[in-house]
């Protein structure tokens, strides 16, 4: 772990599980000043010399410019380091309008609708048309989460539909990050398209099956992995 010090307090995100219901208490994060923002970029540039991939997750803290992720992605691309980006809204829009692109983005269907400002359904033709818009040009992987219905993906010029089994969900907090971990692992291991999509969805579901946040039981990995179906469409 390589951290830098901020003047503000790191926020707590608390999930309370009770009788099958979940309540989230999300504190406000610190506001980042210009000196801290520049300090992290310098720190990041040093780390970039030692890594093979970068995963960026979550919204920008207060105080950072809307193009902050774009600045990070530019540095990654200049070093040939792939970027897996999981964010939404204006931050993602800014990245997509920038000449330096992430390798992977993973919006859900609502976030995709927000980006394109047009109604979408989950039909294959509608999804194909959506992810083929000029806004997404230059992005190698677009993986759209469809919740319990699985996922839809575009890798370069190939489209995939991912069908997942029904599972008992105990705590979904952290499932998106677990999915990002699966994507990153598959890219680092040069896995094929089918295995990348299966690994990503397997880890996301394994996390959702556990009460503990950010935990997966790998003893159940193979069984769930083998139940996922990836179809080229």
Characterize this entry briefly.
This is Tagatose-6-phosphate kinase. Helix content is 36%, strand content 18%.
Topology:
Blueprint: E1 13-18, E2 21-26, H1 34-48, E3 54-57, H2 68-78, E4 83-86, H3 89-96, E5 104-105, H4 109-116, H5 124-131, E6 141-145, E7 151-155, E8 158-163, H6 175-188, H7 193-208, H8 221-225, E9 229-232
Category by helix and strand content: alpha/beta
Q: Strand order within the widest sheet?
A: 3-4-5-6-7-8-9
| CATH architecture classification | 3-Layer(aba) Sandwich
Q: Care to count the β-strands?
A: 9
Distance between the termini: 40 Å
CATH superfamily membership? Ribokinase
Here the CATH topology equals UDP-N-acetylmuramoyl-L-alanine:D-glutamate ligase
Order of helices and strands: EEHEHEHEHHEEEHHHE
Contiguous runs where pLDDT drops below 50 for at least 5 residues? none
Strand content: 15-25%
Count of DSSP-assigned helices: 8
Overall outline: globular
Return Rg in Å.
18 Å
Average predicted local confidence, pLDDT: 94
**Number of self-contained structural domains:** 1
> Mind summarizing the main beta sheet?
7 strands, mixed
What is the CATH class name? Answer: Alpha Beta
- The residue fraction in helices comes out at 25-40%
EC number: 2.7.1.144
Family: Belongs to the carbohydrate kinase PfkB family.
Organism: Staphylococcus aureus
Protein name: Tagatose-6-phosphate kinase
């Amino acid at each position: 772990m390589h951290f830098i010090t901020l003047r503000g307090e790191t926020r707590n995100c608390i999930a309370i599980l009770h009788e099958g219901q979940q309540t989230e208490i999300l504190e406000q994060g610190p506001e980042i000043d210009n000196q801290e923002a520049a300090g992290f970029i310098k720190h990041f540039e040093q780390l970039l010399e030692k890594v093979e991939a970068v995963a960026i997750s979550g919204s920008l803290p207060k105080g950072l410019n809307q193009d902050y992720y774009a600045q990070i992605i530019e540095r990654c691309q200049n070093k040939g380091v792939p970027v897996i980006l999981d964010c939404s809204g204006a931050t993602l829009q800014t990245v997509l309008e920038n000449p330096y692109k992430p390798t992977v983005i993973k919006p859900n269907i609502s976030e995709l609708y927000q980006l394109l400002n047009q109604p979408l359904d989950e039909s294959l033709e509608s999804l194909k048309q959506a992810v083929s818009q000029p806004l997404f040009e230059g992005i190698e992987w677009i993986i759209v989460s469809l919740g319990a219905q699985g996922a839809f993906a575009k890798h370069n010029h190939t489209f995939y539909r991912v069908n997942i089994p029904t599972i008992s969900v105990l705590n979904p907090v952290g499932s998106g990050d677990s999915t990002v971990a699966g994507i990153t692992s598959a890219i680092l291991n040069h896995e094929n398209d089918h295995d990348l999509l299966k690994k990503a969805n397997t880890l996301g579901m394994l996390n959702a099956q556990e009460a503990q946040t950010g935990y997966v039981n790998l003893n159940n990995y193979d069984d769930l992995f083998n139940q996922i179906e990836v179809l080229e469409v």
